[in-house]
Amino acid sequence: MSLIAITEVKKRFGDVEVLKGINLDVERGEVVAIIGKSGSGKSTLLRCVNGLEMIDDGSIMVAGAQLINDDLHLKALRLKVGMIFQQFNLFPHLSAGRNVMLSQMVVKKTPAREAEAMARRMLERVGLGHKFDAYPDQLSGGQQQRVAIARALSMQPMALLCDEITSALDPELVNEVLAVVKELAADGMTLMMVTHEMRFAREVCDRVVFMHQGRVHEIGPPEEVFGNPRTPELRQFLGAQLVV
Amino acid sequence: MMTFTLWDILRNLLLAARWTVVLSLVSFVGGGLLGMALLYLRIGKARAGRIFVQGYVELFQGTPLLMQLFLAFFGLGLFGIDVPAWLAAGLALILWTAAFLVEIWRGCVESVACGQWEASASLGMGYVQQMRYVILPQAVRVAVPPTVGFSVQVVKGTALTSIIGFVELSKAGTVVTNATFEPFTVYGLVALIYFALCWPLSKSSQILERKLNVAHRDH
Ligand SMILES: Nc1ncnc2c1ncn2[C@@H]1O[C@H](COP(=O)(O)OP(=O)(O)OP(=O)(O)O)[C@@H](O)[C@H]1O
Ligand SMILES: [Mg+2]
User: Fold this and answer.
1) Who surrounds ion ligand 2 at CB < 5 A?
2) Vertex B75: Cα angle to B70 and B79 (nearest 5)
3) ipTM entry
4) What is the pLDDT of residues B80-100, one digit of tens each?
5) A111 in any annotated domain
6) CB contact under 8 A, A82 and B126
7) What's the Rg (C-alpha) of chain B?
8) Cβ A78–B124 below 8 Å, yes or no?
């Protein structure tokens, strides 16, 4: 059974239907890249999977449990699926270490000592063991994003959703974050990532999803999607990308 | 005719200024506590609570403080309740202060970036946990300067209570003027005392704002 099963999902904002019936199954340990033009609904899809937006129709199952809109179910869902945002969204009033400790302590009621040990391990894992006491505004964008990854990992999710996590970074900081993601992928983490890094998608992902006007327009392994695009929309999209 | 030295005048005014200070403190602390309770409703999930506080704020911000004082003083009298001036003054000022503080604080809570809500939600936190550990700690920092700044308005607001007969600094000014026939000296001193009370507050509000802007966190 798929870890994440998205079936006929529809989502509208007011009169605009942004997702027009999405079907997508993500297997355990699979790394899926989502590409597509601005406004094609990529972020909305990820946000629906994390329960940040409520779907209007269809169903989303994570590890066999249906996504239902109430506090208890949402919390259970979010323990299974973590999310990393374009703007990092670290808590600015807490040190890096405290950022990673907080949700463990208040959501999982982990004792402070264990939460700290976990935080140190996770920061180590993203190469920031020495920044435990640094505050977010003392860190570079790339470092902040790695802390955000450590924070999500500390909750031991089954899958991570990444929404353009390198788009807010200076070019020279992109690779340090992608390297961390690559390692996660190698460790078997299930990843759904919206990205504009076509080269990265090609190298690391098992499947690539091309979204167009609220639909999954093409889907397949990266060699096929990048090497042999079948629809004119995808060809046009890829043609507009600088480096493939 | 008796003569008054400058010291006589000043001494009487300073004695009355104690009541200005007491009334300001009571109004600010009382209004702050009530404001917190109202804030809890205002940003809470219950629609009825939000609407109630909105109405409350509009009522107290949309009418002059003087009318509120009159209503507290004379209005309750109509029901046969004998309200002493100090009680009416304290009550009206507490309600008035709360109406302004709750709006200042709501703005501060809403100024916290929406990404903070989403990030904490995606980590599994519930509404109360988000508020307590993520949103309020950031909002409080933003709230300190305008809150201290507003205390100046409270101090100045107490002057109106002289009209319902509460003897604080302004009322004492009138009384002393009637005895000395030296309005310029007396009200000049009254103004100076108000300034001495208010200036440190507004100055510290400015300094706090600058400080909190520079160091955006606690170490
Ligand atoms: N909260 C919202 N309210 C109204 N419309 C929204 C909202 N969020 C997204 N939209 C609209 O939904 C459409 C899809 O948005 P979405 O953010 O999912 O696109 P995207 O594929 O992530 O684009 P980008 O590459 O620019 O991030 C857009 O037209 C956007 O304007
Ligand atoms: Mg997007």
Assistant:
1) A 43
2) 160
3) 0.93
4) 888 899 999 999 999 999 999
5) no
6) no
7) 21
8) yes
